[in-house]
Amino acid sequence: MINPLGNEDLSEKPGERIIDKPELPAGGVTNENDVYTEVITGEMHLKRGTMGKFEVFTDEAPRLGGTDKYPSPMTYLALAVGF
User: Fold this and answer.
1) CA-CA distance, 48 to 28, in Å (whole number)?
2) pLDDT tens, 40-70?
3) Mean pLDDT over all residues of the chain?
């Protein structure tokens, strides 16, 4: 079986995507992301997520016990679907 292409095999050229090529690799393509999440102690529903150099915070509405300082996890999910 042919191994899939990984992140290290993909182009660094801006805008060049493997899915734009006429034929996809026989083994497919994998995408690896290490994402870390943590609950901020003493802050109700406040959570922090990191991926590489990026950091996001999430909270819940007051009716769910949060402080509404940041978007809810479902808001981030809806944004992700939109992109």
Assistant:
1) 32
2) 998 889 999 999 999 999 999 999 999 999 9
3) 89
Domains identified in the chain, total number: 2
pTM, full prediction? 0.65
Separation between Cα atoms, residue 27 and residue 4, nearest integer Å:
4
User: Residue 26's domain spans which residues?
Assistant: 1-32
CA dihedral 56, 36, 3, 13 (to 10 degrees): 30
Q: How many residues does the chain have?
A: 83
Q: What is the spatial distance between Cα 16 and Cα 24, in angstroms, rounded to a whole number? A: 14
Tell me the one-letter amino acid at 20: D
Same domain, residue pair 23 and 39: no
Q: Assess whether 41 and 56 both reside in one domain.
A: yes
Q: Cα(46)–Cα(58) distance, rounded to whole angstroms?
A: 6
